[in-house]
Specification:
Elements (H helix, E strand, L loop, with lengths): L1 H9 L5 E4 L2 E3 L1 H6 L4 E4 L4 E3 L4 E3 L4 H7 L23 H26 L3 H4 L7 E3 H7 L4 E2 L2 H12 L16 H10 L3 H8 L8 E3 L5
Length: 210
């Protein structure tokens, strides 16, 4: 998402990001692709960090008599398997992934916000800031509402008068979404939304846990 937003900006179109309530972790990562970031004073911003959640069912599996046989091509192929404990090589493997992803996150924020990378690390420990705090640190450009962001975007785009706002039509009803998916040959996307996280691990995530 960050790359998609950045591409629009790099092609000469101003992209103003408005954070109304929460712009943390992956949300903030994506926001860094824009031209300007605006947030309400009470918005939550930041949570710069990376996490991998690994759920373990080993004790439960043993209690109810579930056993597993693994045939693998390499010792790390089943790293994160929820039916066994993590060993030291597993932990080192996942930590390397998290560290490198975190470093990429830092690079993006440092470049987009024009902040020294080492200085940024003081704030990039997973914590969130209010919009007002984020403004003082330099994580956002200004304080304001969505309406303020629209006005700024209009001004940057050279629009005279009130701009016309185009909004995507929401499809809240799951029945209509499924029907549409048949017509769009996109049933797979609906299926993916219904899949449980427990069966998609390990997952590298940029998220704010609260």
């Amino acid at each position: 998402m960050y790359e998609a937003i950045k591409k629009v900006k790099d092609n000469g179109k101003p992209v103003v990001v408005s954070i109304s309530s929460l712009g943390a972790s992956g949300g903030y990562y994506a926001a860094c692709g824009g031209s300007l970031i605006i947030a309400n004073p009470g918005s939550l911003v930041g949570s710069i960090g990376v996490i991998i959640n690994l759920t373990n069912f080993k004790d439960l599996a043993e209690k109810i008599g579930i056993t597993e046989n693994i045939i693998k091509s390499g010792e790390l192929k089943d790293a994160g398997n929820p039916f066994r404990e993590l060993n030291e090589k597993d932990k080192e493997y996942f930590q390397d992934i998290v560290n490198d992803s975190y470093d990429q996150f830092l690079d993006v924020v440092s470049k987009s916000r024009k902040m020294d990378k080492e200085k940024l690390k003081e704030y990039a420990n997973g914590r969130v800031f209010t919009g007002r705090q984020a403004k003082e640190i330099g994580l956002i450009d200004s304080l304001g509402t969505y309406e303020d962001a629209v006005k700024i975007t209009s001004r940057l785009s050279g629009i005279d008068g009130d701009p016309v706002i185009v909004k995507e039509k929401k499809k809240d009803n799951i029945f209509f979404r499924i029907v549409d998916s048949f017509s769009d040959n996109n049933l797979r996307s609906v299926k993916n939304e219904l899949k449980s996280e427990f069966f998609e691990q390990p997952i590298l995530q940029y998220k704010f846990v609260y």
